[in-house]
Write a structure and sequence with these properties.
15 helices; globular; transmembrane; MetI-like_sf; transport; membrane
Length: about 290
């Protein structure tokens, strides 16, 4: 049999490649446009001359955002909430999903129904606000983490993964005298890294992009995360612009500051994603049995 592809196969590969190149450009062009605007001269941006290539490049907008507007403090708050919140969420999600994956757990069906109910029906903003206020979490970074440590959908993803791990692994460990926690942390979790990385990225993106909850729970300026800071910067952009040096203010405008802030806000997640992409390729159902 000849190793050459048939003409229909080659046409399909070409069409498929062109399609995904087009999809990639659709996603990439707006990002390139933002970067070009953020480093372009004010007059060129106002005149609409900037599309994919900057005009009269300067970095005044980035310097203003980084050093004059409180961006660094908001960034540090978002990084803390994302890192700590994601770590705690992974711990609690794992400790919840692993027992639920065992049919021998007493009351398992009841617990599963509770989580299904929580996934389908949202309590509402007012009950959540009253809960956070009653717990004394208002104006603390914990108000952006503790009420949202467990997302039922992620629990079911982890539960499904744990159910697909062969029982022989645990049975052999129990014969050697391992406890349930030992089995979980020394046997199950090491082969669950793809699933943990995937769920961790879901949580990280949710914490990083969270805007609504800080808007309700945070009033102190020094505790506002990046997304809330971005909203307030865009809303009061002219006042922030006037706080800068008059000479540098000539080179920045509302559009350039907005673009610079959006680029800097999205950059951390964009840097993180390539390191976790390989776990998506491996999938959520990786496991093995050693003979």
């Amino acid at each position: 049999m000849s190793g050459k592809s048939s003409l229909p196969d080659r046409l399909f590969l070409v069409a498929n490649s062109l399609f995904f190149i087009a999809v990639g450009l659709v996603c990439l062009i707006p990002w390139i446009h933002l970067i070009a605007k953020s480093v372009s001269d004010e007059s060129a941006v106002i005149a609409g001359k900037v599309f994919l290539w900057p005009v009269e490049i300067h970095w005044d907008s980035y310097e203003f955002v980084l050093f004059k507007s409180g961006f660094v403090n908001a960034l540090s708050i978002s990084l803390f909430v994302t890192v700590v919140g994601t770590s705690l969420s992974l711990v609690f999600t794992t400790l919840t999903a692993y027992p639920l994956s065992k049919p021998r757990l007493k009351g398992r069906n009841l617990f599963i129904m509770i989580y299904v109910f929580a996934m389908l029906f949202y309590g509402g903003i007012v009950p959540n606000y009253m809960l956070v206020k009653g717990l004394g979490l208002m104006n603390t970074v914990w108000s952006m983490m503790i009420p949202y440590l467990i997302i039922p959908f992620n629990v079911f993803i982890m539960k499904t993964f744990f159910e697909q791990i062969p029982e022989q692994l645990e049975e052999s460990a129990k014969i050697d005298g391992a406890s349930n926690l030992t089995i979980l942390f020394r046997l199950i979790l090491p082969i669950s890294l793809p699933s943990l990385a995937t769920i961790g990225l879901f949580y990280a993106v949710a914490f990083w992009n969270d805007y609504l909850h800080p808007l309700f729970y945070i009033n102190k300026t020094n505790l506002k995360p990046l997304q809330l800071f971005l909203y307030e910067m865009i809303k009061g952009i002219e006042n922030l612009r006037l706080e800068g040096d008059p000479e540098r203010a000539m080179n920045i405008t509302t559009a350039t500051i907005e673009s610079a802030t959006i680029v800097l806000s999205a950059l951390p997640i964009m840097i993180l994603y390539p390191f976790l992409q390989k776990y998506f390729v491996k999938g959520l159902t990786i496991g093995s049995v050693k003979g």
